[in-house]
Amino acid sequence: MLSLEQLFVRLILAALLGSIVGLERQRLDWAAGLRTHMLVCVGSALAMIVSAHGFTDVLVPGKVVLDPSRIAAQVVSGIGFLGAGTILFLRHEVIRGLTTAAGLWTVACVGLAVGSGLYDAAVIATVLALIILALLKPLEKMLFSKSRKRTVSLVINRQHTSLELIEQALNREQITLNQMIVQRGEQPDEDYVQLLLNSNTPKEKITPLINHLRDIAGIKEINFLTDKGSREG
To answer: Would you list the domain boundaries of the chain?
Structure first.
């Protein structure tokens, strides 16, 4: 059985490592922030400690044998329920929260490593997670920004506006439109309109376009997306 000092070290280290990843998510104001990541890491570390050392009093050599990896396996699969809660399915096939869900799963595994006494592996994994979340994001934007779609999504009232007015706003800013997709909305007088812009459209042209679209009566909602159909975070 672990000593009280060892228990303190493992649980406090788990809280510390979880907080490092949680601070990065908190900085971006995601729902799963500092406290959530700390709790996940501490909870999974405690689950690993209980799994490895919590049943020593019932073990009988040759008769009662326990597998300490069983609870750990349940943590790895069970954390998916919490991760699913951070994923938001928005309109127009937009998904947000995938990176946060992956971060929670990683933090749970860090907690399991700390709970089993694999401190080096836990610290290395935490550093790598922080590098992936914080440092690689600017590099990702720099490398893949040109290949991403630029999409302006609109919710319009068809009784008060028309596609011709939207096209006029595009022509005014000299923006090339690759495709326009119109779908029926949830309300009888509502339509969803997706404007798929040319990937080379400068960002400085998007703001004036959105301002022109806001001036058109009947446009109820405007969203601007710059990725491949999903938003990480």
So the answer is: 4-144, 150-225
53 and 2 in contact (C-beta within 8 Å)? Answer: yes
Given a contact cutoff of 8 angstroms between Cβ atoms, the answer to whether 181 and 196 are in contact is yes
Q: Which residues of 111-126 are buried (b: 16+ CB within 10 A; e: fewer)?
A: bbbbbbbeeeebbebb
pLDDT digit string (tens) for 19-56?
Answer: 988 888 787 766 677 888 899 999 999 989 888 887 67
Give me the residues of the chain with pLDDT under 50, please: 92, 228-233
Q: Which residues neighbour 28 within 8 Å (Cβ) at sequence distance 6 or greater?
A: 233
Q: Is the separation of the CB atoms in 54 and 65 below 8 Å?
A: no
Which residues, at least 6 apart from 210, have a Cβ–Cβ distance to it below 8 Å?
A: 152, 222, 224
Rounded distance, CA 67 to CA 59, Å?
Answer: 11
Residue 37 near residue 107, CB atoms below 8 Å: yes
Number of Cβ within 10 Å of residue 141's Cβ equals 12
CATH of domain 150-225: 3.30.70.260
In the chain, count H helices and then E strands: 8, 6
Please name which of 75, 16, 19, 67 lies closest in space to residue 47, comparing C-alpha atoms.
75
